[in-house]
């Protein structure tokens, strides 16, 4: 009975494919011709992913989609940077008006000493290097004059003080170009203090003869400048201090947050032009010695005229 039914159903639907033959699309691998599919290499797949010519896609996206993503990224970065700048400006503005806020000179932050307190020298060259180099021309050394003027103007606003004790180093052009001035100060450190040299430490430290003479006059933290090498001392010329003798009053230390470190000006004159001079200034006190070094080089006008010709 069941066999007859199968025959009838098969005759009623002659168009249906017989299972197990190549005409059945649902059966895979029934024919050797159908089982062989084209294989695409990975390089071609990668190239097709980067750029699909048929659908005109770059990395799976259209040009319009990529433009939208780039525009959104730029807008987001602009917003983020603007928000950060506004936040920083607001924070610094609030800190500026706090009672504990105090301005610290950039040179003081970047000048350190291996022993004791650090010293700062003004002016400096580019990148806060202790190098003073100029041609003997007002246009060339104007940058150093401006730096000294800015230093004194800022301090006058805070202290309302006239620096008459600095002599010619207290007014423009500060001795530039024949006798340039360098202003030296002790870096501001709120809890730092020192005692003047006593005779025992002066012997141990082998202080210069001039300091021994100054010690008989007063008890201060003495500053002394000289050439580093014998060659420098030979061509150094004359060193003049303002005030003279050059000493810091130990009673002013430790400094408060409202006071500035006192200044001492060092003026160099009658030195040899066209030669680089290495100068070292040392601060002598009972707890140790602090030093700062800088270079001075002034090109004479004669050499400049010869180079032009």
Question: What are the main properties of this structure?
Answer:
309 residues; 11 strands; 20% strand; disordered C terminus; disordered N terminus; single chain; 10 helices; alpha+beta; Immunoglobulin-like
Specify the number of helices.
10
Task: Give me the CATH architecture of the largest domain, please.
Answer: Sandwich
* Sheet having the most strands: 5 strands, mixed
CATH class of the largest domain, named Mainly Beta
- The total tally of domains equals 2
Mean pLDDT: 78
Strand arrangement across the biggest beta sheet: 4-11-10-6-8
N-to-C CA distance? 127 Å
Binned, the helix content reads 25-40%
Order of helices and strands: HHHEEHHEEHEHHEHEEEEEH
Let me know the number of strands: 11
Helix vs. strand class: alpha+beta
CATH homologous superfamily annotation of the largest domain: Na, k-atpase alpha subunit
Using only C-alpha atoms, the radius of gyration works out to 41 Å
CATH topology of the largest domain: Immunoglobulin-like
What proportion strand? 15-25%
Backbone shape: elongated
Low-confidence stretches: 1-14, 18-35, 106-114, 303-309
Subcellular location: Membrane
GO cellular component, one term: sodium:potassium-exchanging ATPase complex
InterPro entries: Na/K_ATPase_sub_beta (IPR000402), Na/K_ATPase_sub_beta_sf (IPR038702)
Family: Belongs to the X(+)/potassium ATPases subunit beta family.
Question: What does the model show?
Answer:
The chain is an alpha+beta fold. The protein has 2 domains: 17-60, no CATH class; 106-308, Immunoglobulin-like (Sandwich), CATH 2.60.40. The chain is 36% helix and 20% strand. It has 10 helices and 11 strands. Strands 4-11-10-6-8 form a 5-stranded mixed sheet. It starts with a helix and ends with a helix. The model is unreliable at 1-14, 18-35, 106-114 and 303-309 (pLDDT under 50).
